[in-house]
Write a structure and sequence with these properties.
- By secondary structure, this protein is mainly alpha-helical.
- The protein has 22 helices and 2 strands.
- It has a two-stranded antiparallel sheet.
- Helix 5 packs antiparallel against helix 14.
- The longest helix is centred in the last third of the chain and has 36 residues.
- The N and C termini lie far apart (56 Å).
- About 1% of the residues have low confidence.
Length: 548
């Protein structure tokens, strides 16, 4: 099998899906009837900021992509490339795209409010509280996992001759300075988007060059963790136009360039698929169901996306149509394409076959595997291998970092909402509703998970994230049903994701309560499982008009 066939088929299917299914969803959910978006009606120059679709697409795509669409397919490839490929295609079109677009559409119809507020309106206040607590715990796991990923990607090891980490880290820090300048130029000096974008891209190229030739940030993992924590606190409380939005927009050019380079490399090199099409339903104790559907995560569907669609994107969308479909549905399909590229990389590099997770680890971490593979693809049309590795590593870390800063801001929103839900405000809820306190509390809990390490956090993160997707689909379903319409588009993926994630959480609980397991992980899994069950009971109670 030639990887070029896999790539072209994916592109064709995604284009058809965007035009046909995405257009159908936009029409059904009434985006054409939205005359003025919340970004215009509630503009506050802090969170509600009408934004050009090109800028917002970059911000949204950078935020939802994270490390998931790269890490997930590479780890899940132990089951063979066919099941992973099928799940990426089907998941992106009928699960993830519907989930992301639905969360955005529902939020636009509810003053740009979060999924929790949508649940409050369409289910009940109790359901909102349950969802917000669940989402907040999940966000702290996201922050912990991605902080660890970024810190280890940037870390300098003096015993190693490589400087890829410091080179990527130095360039990333320069990006932050560029983001401040870009945001100030766009919103205070009113520099046209075209001019500022051209200058921004030139400066981004300069930042990459400086990082490559002058990697001055040669810090260890713990130092990088501290730097990243300070950064995400700032990104959470500063106006969205000053740091979060411009950094994500500028980084999006880096991500587009990396994806373009990878795609062109596949066309030029025609890398062969060396991996088995299907290796079995059970591999070393891991079963295809539910492990595949939890591991691929962002490459097919991710609950975290719903928090972005309804948490930050809906507050910045300038036009519901056609921008809503482009950003809500289109960005997920682009992410699916990235997942396909990651799958092609592992299919090519696993020249001796891949029959276990241990075999996959021999090739290196997902970040290393992806950087090596894409750098080799780009080398086919003249890009130096080392330059390619640094460039792809920087792009990979940019994905994780943009999800990290957005997640922290959303965690702040959620905690503020929870504090605002109190019937009788008290000193505690008043303090918790403060954006600085809410940010520090979110980051503080994340630091506790961070101490446990990425390897221990990731298993529960995947399950929690996918269960969050099921709960978000439940919210969108309730919104559609309350409009008097059927909602098979959300009900079918919702039922499937509940089945996947409940099974995955039970397996985590059983495994980690046994000798040698990590008991705190089981406790978190039990809490998340109970919260999800309570949410389902509340939804059933309301939908059937029965008091429990």
């Amino acid at each position: 099998m030639n990887s070029l066939v896999i790539l072209i088929l994916a592109i064709a299917l995604f284009v058809i899906a965007y035009i046909c299914y995405g257009g159908y969803l936009a029409k059904k959910w009434g985006l054409a009837g939205v005359k003025e978006t919340p970004a215009h009606r509630l503009q506050d120059n802090m969170d509600y900021v009408p934004t050009d679709a090109r800028v917002l697409f970059g911000h949204h795509f950078s935020s939802i992509a994270g490390a998931g669409p790269i890490t997930g397919p590479i780890l899940a490839a132990v089951f063979g490339w066919v099941p992973v490929y099928l799940w990426i295609i089907v998941g992106s079109i009928f699960f993830g795209g519907v989930h992301d677009f639905g969360a955005l559409a529902a939020s636009l119809d509810n003053d740009g409010k979060s999924i929790g507020e949508i649940i409050k309106t369409n289910v009940s206040k109790r359901a909102q509280t349950i969802f917000n607590w669940y989402a907040w715990v999940t966000i702290t796991l996201v922050v912990a996992a991605f902080t660890d990923i970024c810190a280890k990607t940037f870390a300098y090891n003096p015993d190693s001759a490589g400087l890829t980490g410091p080179q990527a880290g130095t360039a990333s820090m320069i990006f932050i300075v560029l983001a401040f300048l870009f945001g100030f130029a766009r919103n205070k000096l009113h520099v046209p988007l075209g001019i500022s974008s051209i200058l921004g891209v030139i400066f981004v190229a300069g930042a990459i060059a400086l990082g490559y030739f002058c990697p001055v940030f040669k810090f260890g993992v713990n130092t990088w963790r501290v730097i990243l924590i300070v950064y995400i606190v700032a990104a959470s409380v500063l106006p969205v136009w000053l740091l979060l939005q411009p950094r994500d927009y500028l980084c999006s050019f880096l991500l587009y360039a990396m994806m373009l380079g990878a795609v062109i490399g596949v066309f030029v090199k025609h890398p062969s698929v060396n991996m088995s099409a299907f290796t079995g339903f059970s591999i070393n104790g891991s079963t295809l169901f539910p492990v595949l559907f939890v591991t691929v995560a962002c490459g097919a569907i991710s609950g975290f996306h719903s928090l972005i669609s309804s948490g930050t994107t809906s507050k910045q969308l300038g036009k519901a149509k056609p921008d809503g479909q482009l950003i809500g549905y289109g960005a997920m399909l682009v992410e699916g394409l990235l997942a396909v590229v990651a799958l092609i990389v592992i299919c090519y590099l696993s020249k001796d076959g891949l029959t276990s997770i241990a075999d996959g680890k021999k090739l290196g971490t997902p970040a290393v595997v992806f950087a090596n593979g894409v750098a080799e693809f780009m080398n086919a049309f003249g890009i130096n291998m080392q330059v390619g590795k640094v460039f792809v590593t920087l792009a990979y870390s940019a994905f994780a970092l943009t999800s990290l800063d957005t997640a922290t801001r959303i965690g702040r929103y959620l905690l503020q909402e929870l504090a605002g839900e109190a019937k009788k405000p008290n000193p505690v809820t008043k303090v918790a509703s403060n954006m600085y306190v809410a940010t520090l509390a979110t980051v503080g809990i994340s630091v506790i998970f961070l101490v446990a390490g990425y390897a221990k956090v990731w298993p529960i993160f995947g399950s929690a994230n996918q269960l969050l997707a099921a709960l978000a689909l439940l919210a969108v379903t309730a919104w559609v049903l309350n409009k008097g319409k059927h909602s098979f588009e959300t009900i079918i993926p919702m039922i499937f994701m509940f089945a996947v994630t409940f099974t995955a959480l039970v397996l985590i609980i059983i495994k980690n309560f046994q000798p040698g397991g990590f008991v705190p992980l089981s406790i978190i899994a039990v809490v998340l499982f109970v919260l999800a069950i309570l949410q389902l009971i509340e939804a059933v109670r309301v939908f059937t008009h029965k008091k429990i």
